[in-house]
Amino acid sequence: FPWSVSFDMASARGDFLLISFFPDAPDDLIVNLKGHMEASGSKTMPIQGALNLEKALVYAYGIGLLNASPIRVSLKDQRLSFEPIVFRGENAELSITGGVHIEKNYDLHIQGKTALGPLKVMIHELDAVRGDATLTAAITGSWNSPRINGDLTLSNAMFGFDSLPYRFTDVSGYVVFDEDKILIKQINGKFAGGEVTASGNVHLNQFAWDRFYFESKLKGSSFSLPQRLTAQIDGSLIYQGSRAKQNISGDIAIKRANYSQRIDLVSLIMKSRAREVPHKELSAFDQAHLNVKVT
C-alpha cells in the first residue's frame, strides 16, 4: 500500500536519516536538524522525498560543523541530490556538491579545510588522530568500486595506531588521492623522540585500505625495549603488506644503548616459577615478518 509522511522538525535529532543509508557511520555521529521533511513510497516504489533545512548541526569524528545557508536535499528513484552545501566550524569550512545514486554510484565533490578525524573511515587501525587538513577531493564511480581523486595537505597532525606503543607527532606533508590509491609524497614528523620522514602508497577497496607500501627513515628515535634496555637508533625501514600478511625490512644502526638491572640476590634465590603472561590476540602488525639488519 502507498504511504506518505510530512513533518516539521524543531531542532530535532536526525542521526537515523544517515545511518539508514550509511550503516558504517561513526559511533559519535550527532545530527541536529531544524526544517521540514516529506517522504512517500509503497511496496513497489522506493522511498522518495525532500528535505529543507534551516539548521543542520553535524558532529562526527570529534568535529562539529554548522550549515552556512539553507540546505535543500531531494531523494527520487534512489538518487540523493542537493544544492551546494557549505558547513563551517571552529577552524574549518567544508563545501560539498554533487549527489549519490544509492547502491549505484557516487558523484561527490568536497573542498575545504577541516580536521583529520574522518580518516578513520579508511584506516580503521587508527585509535587516535588529530590535526588540520586542507582537502580537495572528488568521489566518483560505482557504489562497490568508488574512485577518489584529489589531494590533502597535512599540518600539526598526530597519529596513533593500535599496534604501536609510540605516536607520530608534529606531522606535516602532502598526500594525493589517485582513484583507488593514496600516494604519500612526503611526510615529516617526530616519532619516539626522534625525527621521521616517510613516503609510500596505500591501495583502497571501498574506502578501506587493502594493501600498502611505506619507506621511512628514522633519526635519533629512542625506544624502551624489554629487560630495561633503552636504545637510540637511526634507520631506514620498509613496511609493506596486506591485511593478511605484512613484512618489515631494512637497516637499523644503534647509536647509543643503556641497560640497567637491579639485582636482589635473596629474591633470585627464593624466586618461584615465572609469572604467566595473560594471553593476548596478536594484531597483524605484531605478526609482521621481520628482515632487519641491526648494527
Overview of the molecule:
The chain has 295 residues and is mostly beta strands. It has helices at residues 15-21, 265-270; strands at 3-13, 30-41, 48-60, 63-67, 71-76, 79-82, 85-89, 92-101, 105-115, 126-142, 146-161, 168-179, 181-191, 194-205, 208-225, 229-242, 246-259, 289-294. A six-stranded antiparallel beta barrel has the order 3-4-7-8-6-5. A hairpin with a 6-residue loop joins strand 2 (30-41) and strand 3. The radius of gyration is 25 Å and the shape is elongated.
Which features would summarize this protein structure in a list?
mainly beta; 67% strand; 4% helix
Summarize the structure.
This protein is mostly beta strands and 295 residues long. The protein contains 2 helices and 18 strands. The termini are far apart.
